[in-house]
Amino acid sequence: MSVKLSTGFEWKKWNTFILRFGLGDILINRGILDDSEYYFRNFAVKICAGFGADLSVIRKGLIFNYAATTDKIWAGINQKIDLVYKF
Question: What pTM value is reported for the model?
């Protein structure tokens, strides 16, 4: 049995801008206890960073999000852009 954990935080110092950072796909399994040397040698997580911008001046409830994440072997970057409309 195993679990994948993703966690992060966001910093909202400004009213309309949010910075986000996190780690993704942290594998939690028995390998930590049984074979910790192998587990930590092959330990791979995603590193995530992004931002959000409140676009309420254009349309109330509209938020723009951008995120960039490494893949698990850190060979490339995945990017995501989306718009969220809350009503």
Answer: 0.72
